[in-house]
Amino acid sequence: MLGLKDEKAPSVYLAEKDGDLSFLPYARDQRLLDLSRFDIDGLRDAPDSLRAFLFSDRGIYRPGDTAHIGLILRKRDWSALPSGLPLQAVITDPQDQEVWRQTIAFGEAGFEEMAWASSSAGKTGTYRVELFPWSGQVPGFPDYRFRGSLQARIPQAPAELGEASTDAQGVASFDLPLAAIDEPVFEITLAGEGFEKDSGRSVVNVTSALVSRHAFLLSQSPDGPLDYIHVSSEIFAQDPSATG
Fold first, then answer.
1. 50-160+175-238: in CATH 1.25.40.10
2. Based on the number of CB atoms within 10 Å of its own CB, is 162 exposed (0-12), middle (13-18) or buried (19 or more)?
3. Buried b (16+ CB within 10 A) or exposed e, 193-208
4. Model's pTM, two decimal places?
5. What is the CA radius of gyration of the chain?
6. What distance in Å separates the CA atoms of residue 20 and residue 198, rounded to the nearest whole number?
7. Euclidean distance between CA atoms 232 and 65, whole angstroms
8. Which residues of the chain have pLDDT under 70?
């Protein structure tokens, strides 16, 4: 077929039997199967790989409603999960802006629930809930991993911090209710909503941080890939100033 050109080039597939004739055009673009509409990426799988399934109690919510999300985490081989496995749940609004983030510690059963109270002034549209492995990172030290406490006695319910007005530089301060938490290391997530003075338009931002009562945090940085070779780790001590 490759050597046939011009008038010798094939034009149709021809099938004939018992007086019946059928044909199919040869090398026509409109006859080709468009694979771009199909997901052909596949999955990178391993016996200890994780798969998560998320579902909500309702299909639609009004601004100000509380959404209850069920989370199921499973290994491919259905073996027990390590107790306290940390994953981060992230919710983004219709404009792909992050509006909520929380670290969730999964038990061996792999069943957890989270509740998100939406803002009464929130945007309408489709919100997305995603589950990611907790990176254990601190800004400024991307190659090191820190591990925070994930004990059940750390409050998971959101706490209202009240309202405050900004100063001339646009800065406002809030007192965080952290005195009752006696864990040595834990993670907090803050969500703030600001309003313009005249128009009343709002903007929402979310940030997370590790909090520790200790003078230093210990982390580790591998000196090579850990998935197929045995390597040593470098121990790093982090002071409260996050500078060394």
1. no
2. exposed
3. eeeeeeeeeeebebee
4. 0.47
5. 28
6. 79
7. 49
8. 1-2, 28-47, 134-157, 182-185, 213-214, 216-222, 224-244
How far apart (Å, rounded) are the C-alpha atoms in residues 235 and 11?
70
Extended strands (E) in the chain: 12-17, 20-25, 50-56, 66-75, 85-92, 98-106, 111-117, 128-133, 185-195, 202-212, 217-222, 233-238
Task: Please tell me the distance from the alpha carbon of residue 185 to that of residue 124, in angstroms, as a whole number.
Answer: 36
Q: Which residue bears the tokens 């254990």?
A: 136
Angstrom distance (rounded) from CA 162 to CA 192 = 10
- The 8-class DSSP code of residue 29 comes to G
244/233 Cα distance (integer angstroms): 18
